[in-house]
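Appendix C: a fully annotated inverse folding record. The material below is reproduced so that readers can follow the format used throughout the book. The structure is listed first as tokens, followed by the designed sequence.
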């Protein structure tokens, strides 16, 4: 993070903007550093011409893609995915129809996943250089794609210079973390105590001892996080996905999630981003319930929230072949979320495991995967596609979370087209036909299903911004929605069951056709099929 005694906030982000514009020769403002401090990088000369055009507000019809750089594309044969590799695959993502990228943490970190950051202003050298990152941004912008970065305000790495200084006894840095001599019985997010012993006291680490929680009651900490955000926005990035957003500030009595103080923190962060780069994305990882998410929107003004409740309902609906809970959840969301709130919808992410694995009960079912794709792209919200989901990638063999984050299967060859070397983790055997190269050659593949559905969504305002009304189709296995954008009205009707079903939908007008196939609607929904009905 930034230097102690750094310039005031306004001048600091202005400096970043000037650097991004290439107007300042020697980079961001520098000040003499102590051992514990890490510096904003000198990006003046080397990056000139490489930076993006400045952040871009996302389009309403946007579809985002979550990238784990380590596993996406290796460019130099060391088995580790990197930024030049990602850059080389951007035309692929544009072809798929993606309009935004969320990059999981790209900063230096002792872990493979990067959520324990040691320098928020730098790029993980395994992934490349700052210039490489700016190259990704430049090309993405040229292809009409936004780029948001993972920001982790809840904690740092235990190897961050601040925490090392704290352990060394520097009181200024000790105050940047949460300490107790007699810790209360707070449970961490993975069970067990949230407190960890060090030097005769205990520090808070909700996620792990390697990830000490920052003390946002120390104004210096919040200022540093704001400075980091302003720095990357100044370089032209389009916003942030904010990790563990409900845990940033703890409340009284062991309230480790959604504390009143936390809503206030989110409100200040959102206001800060709005001031620095109006329209930039702040996507909270709101891994919580619907009332809490709604409150982040209404009380904290949070722009975008991760729709975990919908994810849970959606996967359960696909597994149980019942639309009842999903329909109830959609109706509840329509009533609870304020208009204009961006709901980031998803069917998988780096914490959840691959949809193809979860739905392979008892065996892989391409029709069910295609139905999931159809639902993700036609339900309310802004879809976020986890890398590899477009081909129905399965979980790999790694333990704990590693198996959810294995290398992208590009081609049916050793190394999967991901690397010419030894992959950083065993990707396992790709299931037959589950590579990008194979599926692009097959117009009936899941990849083509995603591509068609993304294109369809883009051209139908009813799908990307229409109000949602849940209809009763008279069948437990059938989800029926009216999506109404005023100038366009469509009906999304999905049969989650294994048999063709007749439905009662008096709201669907006479002569409606399925815009996906052009077929007239005859009152029957085939098994595991999604219809998008409109009047021609
Ligand atoms: Ca590499
Ligand atoms: Ca915290």
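Designed amino acids, in order:
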């Amino acid at each position: 993070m930034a230097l102690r005694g750094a310039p005031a906030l306004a001048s600091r982000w202005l400096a970043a903007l000037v650097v991004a514009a290439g107007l300042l020769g020697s980079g961001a403002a520098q000040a003499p550093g102590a051992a514990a401090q890490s510096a904003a990088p000198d990006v003046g000369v080397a990056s000139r011409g490489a930076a993006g055009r400045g952040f871009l507000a996302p389009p309403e019809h946007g579809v985002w893609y979550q990238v784990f750089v380590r596993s996406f594309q290796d460019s130099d044969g060391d088995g580790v995915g990197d930024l030049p590799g990602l850059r080389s695959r951007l035309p692929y993502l544009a072809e798929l129809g993606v309009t935004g990228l969320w990059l999981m943490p790209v900063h230096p970190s002792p872990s493979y996943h990067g959520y324990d950051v040691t320098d928020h202003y730098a790029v993980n050298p395994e992934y490349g250089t700052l210039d490489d990152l700016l190259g990704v941004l430049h090309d993405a912008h040229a292809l009409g794609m936004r780029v948001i970065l993972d920001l982790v305000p809840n904690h740092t790495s235990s190897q961050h210079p601040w925490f090392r200084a704290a352990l060394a006894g520097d009181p200024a840095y000790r105050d940047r973390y949460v300490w107790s001599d007699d810790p209360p019985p707070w449970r961490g997010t993975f069970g067990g105590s949230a407190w960890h012993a060090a030097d005769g006291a205990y520090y808070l680490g909700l996620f792990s001892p390697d990830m000490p929680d920052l003390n946002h009651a120390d104004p210096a900490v919040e200022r540093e996080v704001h400075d980091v955000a302003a720095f990357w926005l100044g370089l032209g990035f389009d916003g942030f996905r904010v990790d563990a957003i409900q845990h940033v500030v703890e409340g009284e009595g062991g309230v480790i999630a959604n504390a009143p103080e936390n809503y206030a923190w989110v409100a200040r962060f959102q206001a800060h981003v709005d001031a620095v780069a109006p329209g930039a994305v702040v996507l909270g990882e709101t891994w919580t319930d619907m009332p809490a998410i709604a409150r982040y929107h209404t009380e904290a003004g949070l722009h975008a929230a991760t729709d975990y409740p919908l994810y849970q309902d959606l996967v359960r609906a696909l597994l149980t072949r019942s639309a009842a809970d999903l329909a109830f959840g959609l109706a509840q969301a329509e009533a609870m979320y304020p208009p204009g709130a961006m709901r980031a919808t998803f069917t998988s992410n780096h914490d959840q495991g691959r949809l193809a694995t979860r739905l392979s009960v008892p065996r892989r079912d391409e029709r069910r995967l295609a139905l999931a794709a159809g639902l993700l792209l036609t339900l309310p919200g802004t879809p976020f596609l986890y890398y590899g989901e477009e081909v129905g990638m399965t979980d790999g063999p790694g333990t704990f979370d590693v198996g959810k984050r294995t290398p992208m299967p590009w081609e049916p060859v050793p190394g999967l087209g991901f690397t010419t070397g030894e992959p950083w983790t065993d990707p396992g055997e790709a299931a037959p036909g589950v590579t990008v190269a194979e599926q692009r050659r097959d117009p009936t593949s899941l990849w083509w299903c995603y591509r068609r559905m993304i294109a369809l969504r883009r051209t139908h305002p009813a799908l990307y911004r229409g109000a949602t009304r849940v209809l009763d189709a008279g069948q437990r296995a059938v989800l029926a929605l009216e999506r109404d954008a005023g100038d366009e009205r469509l009906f999304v009707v999905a049969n989650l069951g294994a048999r063709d079903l007749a439905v009662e939908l008096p709201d669907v007008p006479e002569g409606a056709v399925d815009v996906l196939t052009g077929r007239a609607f005859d009152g029957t929904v085939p098994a595991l099929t999604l219809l998008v009905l409109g009047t021609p």
